[in-house]
Write a structure and sequence with these properties.
With 105 residues, the chain is mainly beta. 10% of the residues lie in helices and 29% in strands. The longest helix has 11 residues, at 82-92. It starts with a strand and ends in a 13-residue tail after the last helix.
Length: 105
């Protein structure tokens, strides 16, 4: 499922790659590319994901978009800010009726 993320302006990794601090802020990048005490993050963007079409076939885009603020296995907690929700709702009109929201416009 695609997710909405903010990219670090220092290392360009998604906010998911930055460690959570006790005060709710994000720490350094898990790849060690930015060790500065404070980080700036850009506007939200959709990070697409892929899934196998068949057991042996090529991967295809997964059209489902995960709701902001979701805490998932392997994801940690996604940002739930107003800008993330606005981007999510902007794509909600492309919902296919099965709860899948188009990940790309």
């Amino acid at each position: 499922m695609a997710v909405i993320v903010h990219r670090c302006t220092t290392c360009q990794h998604p906010d998911l790659f930055h460690s959570d601090r006790a005060d709710g802020t994000l720490g350094p990048c898990s790849y060690g590319l930015c060790r500065e005490p404070s980080h700036a993050f850009g506007p939200p963007e959709i990070l697409p994901t892929w899934r196998p079409a068949t057991l042996t076939g090529p991967a295809v885009p997964d059209p489902a978009l995960t709701e902001p603020g979701t805490r998932g296995t392997g994801l940690g907690a996604l940002c739930g800010c107003e800008d993330c929700w606005a981007l999510f709702h902007a794509h909600a009109s492309a919902d296919d009726g099965a709860g899948h929201v188009a990940a790309v416009a």
